[in-house]
Specification:
- It is built from 4 helices and 7 strands, in the order ααβββαββββα.
- The chain is α+β, with helices and mostly antiparallel strands.
- It has a single domain, classed as Mog1/PsbP, alpha/beta/alpha sandwich (Protein Transport Mog1p, Chain A, 3-Layer(aba) Sandwich), CATH 3.40.1000.10.
- A 7-stranded antiparallel beta sheet has the order 1-2-3-7-6-5-4, sandwiched between helices.
- The chain is globular and about 40 Å long.
- About 3% of the residues have low confidence.
- Keywords: Signal.
- It comes from Winogradskyella poriferorum.
- This is DUF4252 domain-containing protein.
């Protein structure tokens, strides 16, 4: 399970690490990463392992959120560029409206700890310099209630 969380963090960590050339943005990125994401997660299915990361051991599943120091267009570009470097096979991506907000979405498949995972990534603009990334990862073949719980958690984080 640690590898699964590490993969999710690496996927999101691209945004913080990409800012190392500007000390102010790097400091802001670290500050944003420690900010609590307002997300509702089913505590009967997932346990909190950090402030914004929730896991299920069996089936293997992760829900996580993170603020990133990027404008929406830059986040969209980096997300698409870096998906392939994280062994993430994109099955569908684009923009859609969720809860009245324009959201970049990316669905795909990955593998961690020998387990095949279905992944959902959402990104939306908080302000002109900040986006919120929400990630759900679920073991292929897991009970539908976990998929529904991930969808509910991710959607709960998308708000004005």
């Amino acid at each position: 399970m640690k590898k699964l969380v590490i993969i999710a963090l690496l996927f999101l960590g691209v945004f913080a690490n990409a800012q190392e050339t500007e000390a102010e943005k790097q400091a802001r990125g670290i500050e944003l990463m420690s900010k609590k994401v307002d997300i509702t997660v089913d505590s009967e299915l997932f346990m909190s392992v950090t402030q914004n990361t929730y896991v299920s051991e069996s089936p293997k599943a992760v829900v996580m959120g993170m603020y990133v120091p990027e404008n929406y267009e830059a986040a969209k570009k980096k997300l698409k560029e870096n998906a392939s470097t994280q062994n993430f096979e994109i099955t569908s991506s684009g923009e859609k409206e969720i809860n009245g907000i324009k959201v970049l979405y990316m669905y795909g498949n990955s593998e961690a700890e020998g387990v095949k995972l279905n992944n959902k990534v959402y990104c939306y603009e908080i302000d002109k310099d900040t986006c919120l990334m929400l990630v759900g990862m679920l073991e292929v073949g897991a009970d539908k209630k976990y998929s529904e719980a991930i969808d509910s958690a991710l959607n709960s984080g998308i708000k004005k």
